[in-house]
Design brief:
Blueprint: E1 7-10, E2 26-31, E3 34-39, E4 45-50, E5 52-57, E6 60-65, E7 68-73, E8 86-87, E9 95-98, E10 104-107, E11 113-126, E12 129-136, E13 139-145, E14 151-157, H1 163-173, H2 177-181
Antiparallel strand pairs: 1-2, 2-3, 3-4, 5-6, 6-7, 8-9, 9-10, 10-11, 11-12, 12-13, 13-14
Length: 183
């Protein structure tokens, strides 16, 4: 019998996104320039039908086919039919995505858009804090918003802030206890 030559690579979750990576005990294999998934016990196989694969979150992955990204589980079932031009691995509960490649928003693990895609690239910082960018007078500035897109910290950051930087800034701005007690 003629079996296809398979190139199997061990995957590591900490590998940069430019490399092929997924979860422990899961391998990516390629055949004829396309990628698929295989478990180390060969019990679960997703055929090589994707142009690119990156991790999403536990037992889920982003796969690119026909230049469009979609979210799948390890049974190769689409989580949501929405196609994206750019995606990132989930950070906590959200991933930064773009449908057109220019404007970004965030989706949850069900593939539902939670923050509409009218920002420049951003990042989920933790809890309900999101760093989002906008072009302000020719410069990209970042702000911190919540899930309802209410601006918590205006567009003052030159780079995407860390969660610690945001918390420290919020603590500096908070009202003293005696002012809160007057309410």
């Amino acid at each position: 019998m003629n079996y296809p030559i398979l190139k199997i690579e061990r995957l590591d979750y900490q590998t940069p996104l430019t490399d092929i990576c997924l979860f422990e005990r899961v391998f990516v294999y390629s055949s004829k320039g396309l990628l698929g998934l295989i478990a180390d016990d060969f019990g679960s196989i997703i055929p090589p039908i994707y142009e690119e694969i990156i991790p999403a979150f536990d037992f889920h992955f982003w796969a690119r086919k026909n230049h469009k990204w979609k979210l799948y589980n390890f049974k190769n079932i689409e989580i949501n039919g929405i196609e994206f031009k750019h995606v990132t691995t989930f950070c906590n509960e959200y991933a930064c995505v773009s449908r057109n490649g220019n404007n970004f928003g965030f989706v949850n693990r069900n593939g539902e858009i939670k923050i509409t895609d009218h920002y420049l690239k951003g990042k989920h910082l933790g809890k309900s804090f999101f760093a989002v960018g906008k072009n302000i007078r020719g410069q990209v500035k970042y702000a911190v918003i919540d899930l309802t897109e209410h601006v918590i910290i205006p567009f003052i950051f030159e780079e995407i802030p860390t969660f610690t930087e945001v918390v420290l800034l919020l603590l500096k701005r908070r009202k003293p206890l005696r002012e809160w007690l007057r309410l």
